[in-house]
Amino acid sequence: MTIKLITAFVLAFLFATAFGKFYVPWLRRIKAGQEIKENGPTWHMNKSGTPTMGGVMFILAAILVCLTVCFEGMLRGEFVNVFIVLFACVFGAIGFLDDWEKLAKKQNLGLSATAKFLLQLVASLVFVLLMRQIGYVRPSFYLFFVDKTIYMPEWLYFLISSFIIVGTVNAVNITDGIDGLAASTSIPVFLFFVALTLVFGDEFEQMGFIASGMVGGLLGFLVYNFNPAKCFMGDTGSLFLGGMIAALAYGYNMPIMLITLGFVFLMETLSDIIQVGYFKLSHGKRVFKMAPFHHHLEMGGWLGHKWKEKEIVALFTGISLVMAIISFIVVSKHYMGLS
Fold first, then answer.
1. Are 263 and 213 in contact (CB under 8 A)?
2. Pairing with 63, which of 73, 207, 268, 337 sits 20 to 30 Å away (CA)?
3. Which value, to the nearest 10 degrees, does the dihedral of the CA atoms of residues 160, 164, 170, 176 take?
């Protein structure tokens, strides 16, 4: 298994890196440039025209791993990896439609919020129903930190799960605001799933290969996305990324761990919610200089130090890594208790 996990990582990294050498110049030639929001930090305006939809690099890398490294398991009738990748691709397709709308209109406005939400909700519901049908999830949530299981009617479980998935996907999307941030903070999340597979065995094998492939694909993508970015992942990439994280959390049947595992994404989302809510309640006052939180740091919020993009990426990735380690320790205790 270890050899295959390494193979998945190396294959995805080499593919994403090599593909990007041709793909990024092609995006420039077709003028697939990102329009920057005028109400964002003024220094982001010089990024206008940077190619978007770069997430295709790690999307294709994940598909390649699914069709090659996972092939032996598929011959044995194990298709959970296919379901997970297809589900993430559905979200990537929704993101692609959004990116295409932005490019066609030459502005940072794509699909309507309502249209995106409904498409995401339907996709999430179908996925959870499928995972329940093949026996990977049960209508209950296990709370690892307090060693307690909450049981509920299936309809309620499906409804709550759909909102958890949609929330996760959009939290990752919100985090994708500066060069390399979403990709870098997602890598520790996928490493958590790889470690879980490596330590606790064959039942997670197929999903572990996909998670390892995502680490490789994201590192390959970062060759082009790290500051100063040569391309952005776009909603095509960020929605796929969020979909993959949520799908793996359900594949491992531990969605509640997204609270700690996805702490950075949760923090970014809450900062946005707090900002909007307080702005409306206070008739124009703000908690942060700008939301989400990474923009607040960029603009010198609270301490006065204007953080550079690389500093923010380093800080948030460090936080994500620490939370992934904490999550692994908590989950490990649960599995060791079952053995």
1. no
2. 268
3. 170
